[in-house]
From TrEMBL:
It is found in: Cell membrane. It comes from mine drainage metagenome. One of its GO terms (biological process) is transmembrane transport. Keywords: Cell membrane, Membrane, Transmembrane, Transmembrane helix, Transport. It is a multi-pass membrane protein. The chain crosses the membrane at residues 46-72, 84-108, 128-149, 170-192, 198-217, 224-245. InterPro entries: MetI-like, MetI-like_sf. This is Putative ABC-type transport system, permease component. GO terms for cellular component: plasma membrane. SUPFAM superfamilies: MetI-like. Residues 46-245 form the ABC transmembrane type-1 domain.
Length: 255
């Protein structure tokens, strides 16, 4: 069977590439570069998203890494329940997730009410913002991190066990280094997902205002032209990490 020449293969990709890139090309021409500026509220939203987003990533790593490893290495009949719990937030509209979180962590929720009496508010507060970003990003991290761990052959861990290594030592010295590229990709996707979280924040953490909610407010109050500067900033802070990891993977012959 004759092989397609590389030039012919590119023709198959052009329609999808054009479909995906065309809106961004339009954005370049629509942006009023001569009047490109950010006001104080925009800068505040950038600081909120970056600062609390970093806090959310620490929680995502702490919660998601052992959970993803457990999913990759544990096999039992009821594991589909854990898989379903991970997939449920992925398949739910973000706005619905915000409502779900509000029912639990809101001022009248089962967890929110007693925490509020202790002085910890999980709506319209910094902890609420971190909670929203963590909940929105964690399932994405877990799915990709699980795939990264599944890509590490258990034989390496078994070999380390024969050398008398403990399970924690094996995890940190064998499993994590071998899965680092996939885990980096999982973190990059979780980072972008957290920075772009809108639906959950709209319900649970409208304040402090992050980049997505600020973009929506600018659009409602001023109009489309007011959102372009902050939109470009969002891409500027969201995309470098996944792009850098992709280039690293390509250099290693993985991508």
């Amino acid at each position: 069977m004759p092989r397609r020449r590389p030039n012919e293969a590119w023709l198959l990709a052009i329609p999808a590439l054009l479909f995906l890139i065309a809106p961004f090309i339009a954005l370049v021409f629509a942006t009023p570069w001569a009047h490109f500026s950010l006001d104080r509220g925009d800068w505040s939203a950038i600081g909120v998203s970056l600062g609390y987003g970093a806090c959310a990533m620490l929680l995502v790593i702490a919660l998601g890494t052992p959970f993803a490893w457990w999913l990759a290495r544990t096999h039992f009949p009821a594991r589909w329940v854990a898989d379903a719990i991970v997939l449920l937030p992925l398949l739910s509209p973000p706005l619905a997730l915000g409502i779900v979180l509000e029912t639990l962590y809101g001022p009248y929720g089962a967890a929110g009410a007693p925490l509020a009496r202790l002085g910890l508010l999980l709506t319209n507060s910094a902890p609420a913002f971190v909670l929203a970003l963590t909940y929105g990003a964690l399932p994405f991290f877990v799915v990709l991190a699980r795939a990264a761990f599944e890509g590490v052959s258990p034989e390496y861990e078994a070999l380390a066990r024969t050398l008398g290594k403990s399970q924690p030592t094996i995890f940190f010295t064998v499993t994590l280094p071998l899965a680092r590229v996939g885990l980096g990709a999982a973190l990059a996707i979780a980072w972008v997902r957290a920075l772009g979280e809108f639906g959950i924040c709209l319900i649970v953490a409208y304040f402090p205002m992050g980049i997505p909610v600020r973009i929506w407010v600018n659009l409602q109050d001023v109009g489309l032209g007011a959102v372009f500067p902050l939109l470009w900033v969002f891409y500027l802070v969201a995309l470098p990490l996944p792009l850098w990891l992709g280039l690293r993977a390509q250099r290693r012959g993985i991508a």
